[in-house]
Amino acid sequence: MIANFNATTRFEKQALFARNEKGNAVATFTSSSNVVRIRRRTIAAKYKALDRDRRQRKQAFSLSALRLTELQRLYTARWGLYLPDDDAGRDDLLLAFHQIPNIDACIEWAAAWAPWLHREDALALAHQTAAARQWLKARALGERLGLTDAERTALNIKTARPIDVSDEALLERKRVRDRQRKARKRLAQRTAKTMPVSRAEPWKAEGISRRTWYRKRRVEDGTKPVRDNSFSITADGICATTPPAIASGTPKKSIRLVRVEAEGLVGGPSRKWKTRFPTAMRLNKEQRAYAKEAGFEPDKINRIFEMFRDHNISQRTYSPDWDQAWVNWVDREILIMDEWYDRQRQQRWINQRL
Fold this sequence. Notes:
This protein is mainly alpha-helical. The protein contains 15 helices and 5 strands. The strands form 2 sheets. Strands 3-4-5 form a 3-stranded antiparallel beta sheet. The chain has a two-stranded antiparallel ribbon with strand order 1-2. InterPro entries: Arc_rbn_hlx_hlx (IPR013321).
């Protein structure tokens, strides 16, 4: 007989359902009164956790508290409101006692989960566990609980490993999830940004040239370009340079940079604005292929290269080893994005605990 109830919260759904061998959700309770009690216990536990976090917000994270929460979630899915009065129930009670820091809390937990246990017996068991407290590793705990991969996935258990999946398979599964998560984040970043003017091409809609459109916009904004005559990069190998005396730290190695202080030799005084970037300072196929292999989309690669080139121009430096400088810049972008993803993942994990 399957119970007829409506579980609304994620914790209640995990508590009221277990997974069979085929991975389908199966109800574990038949009494509506037990469902109400579990909901009340869930609400009380949430308020208690919030109050504890407000009082102990500056304290270090407790892995025992997390494991106790996951054990309670598993016990609710397997046994319902109370632990059974048999060897399996007593073993589950003992595992929970090893995660509780003090004896009074053990007595309180036993009264809520094992009302069939006398207070004297619970007190003796609490003193026994406090005298020889043990901490099982994730694999040992999963084997002792007989935890399956279906239960672990359905109940979102992290501190115990399943008995039917190896450590190598779990590690590979985590790598796949990380790659998919990073791909989703990059897709969200790419779709959230507005289209640049160079791709929108508004001058075509107005029926004018690109240069005329930019000139009109400068006139409307009341701005004009300013030239710095002390700095110019014009053609490959034509600029006069000072001896290399600047080193820029990068994730892999230091790239030798050359300070440029010469006038451009292309164009002349009458064609100051006709100077183009030298070929060495343009994005080539090898550089684009390296960034694409790192996981960046074409639009993102173009924006990263513009930032890379503008940074070197603003610093008045030029690297003779331009390709290696680009590789280090891409690696730095990957490290920045990975750190951002890790911070977001930690924040989501903290929010789930509240």
